[in-house]
Design goal:
Length: 148
């Protein structure tokens, strides 16, 4: 059986709904290489979606000096290959007690390669990396990035 090589660009439209290899203005969905162009910004530019999470029970939480003490984690999203800072949708997940902290959906220092999350208890109590990673908690960050 011979191997078929696809051309670099091919304008294929199926009932004016799908354009492959080029952006057909009549198509509702564009496929450009690995880029699925259904999501667009307000200027009509195609957007990519990438998601991930930090390891459950072994997220690299670090202490930060505050009163009371909190924790933070730097989340690496560089594998997504964004060229500019994407929109990040972030949530703290876990098995227990994550409802009593604040900061789990508020990314800081966002770039194309990642962001930082700070957490602290909502009441006057120190929060440590050991507590967050304990088997009962297994706190971790799940994220979704949309950009180009």
């Amino acid at each position: 059986m011979s191997e078929y090589t696809w051309p670099d660009a091919m304008n294929l439209t199926v009932k004016n709904k799908i354009g492959i290899g080029t952006t057909n203005p009549e198509a509702e969905l564009h496929v450009l290489g690995k880029l699925l162009g259904a999501a667009q910004d307000t200027s009509g530019n195609s957007l990519r979606i990438c998601c991930g999470k930090t390891p459950e029970g072994s997220t690299n939480w670090q202490p930060y000096d505050s009163t009371p003490q909190g924790i933070y984690v730097d989340v690496d999203t560089s594998a997504c290959g964004f060229k500019s800072t994407p929109y990040y949708i972030v949530n703290l997940h876990g098995n227990s007690s994550h409802w009593i902290v604040t900061g789990g959906s508020a990314p800081y220092f966002a770039t194309a390669k990642g962001f930082r999350i700070y957490l602290r208890f909502i009441y006057d109590r120190n929060l440590t990396p050991d507590f967050a990673n304990h088997n009962d908690q297994k706190w971790h960050i799940q994220w979704l990035a949309i950009g180009n």
